[in-house]
Amino acid sequence: MRVYNFSAGPATMPLEVLERAREEMTDWRGSGMSVMEMSHRSPEFVGIAAEAEARMRSLLGVPDDYAVLFLQGGATGQFAAVPLNLTAEGAGAAYLNTGAWSKKAIGEARKYLDVQVLADEKESNYSTVPSQDRLQVPPGAAYLHYTLNETIGGVEFPYVPDAGGVPLVTDASSTILSRPLDVSRFGVVYAGAQKNLGPSGLVVSIVRRDLLGRARPQTPGVLDWTAMAEADSMLNTPPTLAWYLLGLVLEWVEDQGGLTAMAERNRAKADLLYGTIDASGFYSNPVAPEARSWMNVPFLVPDPDLEKPFVAAAAEAGLSGLAGHRSVGGMRASIYNAMPVEGVQALVDFMTDFEQTNG
Ligand SMILES: *Cc1c(COP(=O)(O)O)cnc(C)c1O
User: Fold this and answer.
1) Ligand 1, closest atom to CA 73?
2) Ligand 1 atom nearest 148 alpha carbon
3) Nearest CA to ligand 1 atom 12
4) How far is the CA of 109 from the centre of ligand 1 (A)?
5) Looking at domain 16-255, which of 3.20.20.190, 2.130.10.10, 3.30.360.10, 3.40.640.10 is its CATH number?
6) How far is 182 from 334, CA to CA, in rounded Å?
7) 320 with 4: CB under 8 angstroms?
8) Closest protein CA for atom 5 of ligand 1
9) DSSP for 86-121?
10) pLDDT confidence of 53, banded at 50, 70, 90?
11) Mean pLDDT, rounded, of the chain
12) Catalytic positions
């Protein structure tokens, strides 16, 4: 029996995608072999790769003057790729710090350039996002970087910052394709695949083409956006099976009605869960209402000693992956695109029962 899997990543996949992959596993569409056995240079795989790119472009409305790259090394690799591709030695860039993933991006960038942190939400214990009037990008900054959705803290930007003329760069790992995004506002959007796009192994980077051609000479080839764009993301062997599965997930999102339909579903799921938390005197979510993530919902119970029993009883009831991140404790429900509303309903029913027994 499949459980409802609330893990933050790798995360639940649409059942239809898994079933389709199973059907095609040993003989992909009459080719006589599995996708994982194909040369990445074969016409079959080149077609699979191109189709995934085309679907990503049409779903997100990616303008033609952007490259869509399928890379390895995760979002973590892109933390280094961003400064290496966008700046020369001795440059500076502006970053916003809204939590754990921002901090990691900043730490990696500091190896390569002078990081200026424009806003740090420490004072609110990372439960807020800075308002636009606090974002004065200094002259000379090469770009402004922020984390669109903090997967651990459950904090999501409700607006696209104005970067004051420098390229805006965002880590959209845990929110990409959850709702429409105006890509034309960005210089670079990157996202690790294992939250909303498919299995782990790929990171998608969408790069405005005028930003190509600036990589530092020592940039590793596999992190070099220009080299990767020229090689159709196949400078080396890509994770072919992950790329194929990502394509199936994109096709599934299309079948659901695209990003407008995803947004409606995701809003309804988030409203149901936050509504349950807010209406109870038992559960709490620390995030400022306007910055609450639609994808990752951390919550607490009044007594930390109830956390382990909550997670254990939930698992018993077929609700998996609800323990909070090891750095913060508490609970967290990740309700990505592939989590059906029935899963969130099952969770809130369980929460209500647990409160009645333990409240
Ligand atoms: C998961 C995650 C990452 C890290 O992704 P890796 O693929 O492990 O490198 C980075 N940023 C955000 C916002 C994430 O959710």
Assistant:
1) 9
2) 13
3) 173
4) 15
5) 3.40.640.10
6) 24
7) yes
8) 75
9) H--TT-EEEEEE-SHHHHHHHHHHTTTSEEEEEEEG
10) very high
11) 97
12) 101, 171, 195
pLDDT tens-digit readout, 321-349: 999 988 888 999 999 999 999 999 999 99
Report d(CA 266, CA 270) in Å as an integer.
6
Nearest residue by C-alpha to atom 4 in ligand 1: 75
Which pLDDT belongs to residue 78? 98
- Class for domain 257-358, per CATH? alpha beta
> Do 118 and 95 touch, CB atoms closer than 8 A?
yes
Q: Which of 292, 290, 271 has its CA nearest to residue 341?
A: 271
| 177 token code pair | 């394709």
Q: Is 228 helix (H, G, I), strand (E, B) or coil?
A: helix
Locate the ligand 1 atom nearest the alpha carbon of residue 203 and give its number.
7
CA 184 to ligand 1 centroid distance, Å: 23
The sign one gets for the Cα dihedral 123, 129, 131, 136 is: positive
What's the Cα-to-Cα distance from 317 to each of 7, 174, 294, rounded to whole Å?
Answer: 15, 26, 24
| pLDDT surpasses 90 at 133 | yes
In whole angstroms, what is the distance from residue 248 CA to residue 58 CA? 14
pLDDT over 90 at 108, yes or no: yes
Q: Is residue 357 predicted with pLDDT exceeding 90? A: yes
Distance CA 61, CA 206 (A): 11
What pTM was computed for the model? 0.98
Cα–ligand 1 centroid distance for 349 (angstroms): 30
Domain ranges of the chain: 16-255, 257-358
355 three-state secondary structure:
helix
Pocket residues for ligand 1 (CB within 6 Å)? 9, 74-76, 101, 147, 151, 171, 173-174, 192, 195
| Residue whose token pair is 């083409």 | 209
Q: 106 alpha carbon to ligand 1 midpoint, in Å? A: 13
- Bridge partners of residue 92, in order along the sequence: 114, 141
What does the alpha-carbon distance between residue 165 and residue 332 come to, in Å, rounded to a whole number? 37
What is the model's pLDDT at position 4?
Answer: 98
Taking CA atoms only, the protein residue closest to ligand 1 atom 10 is 75
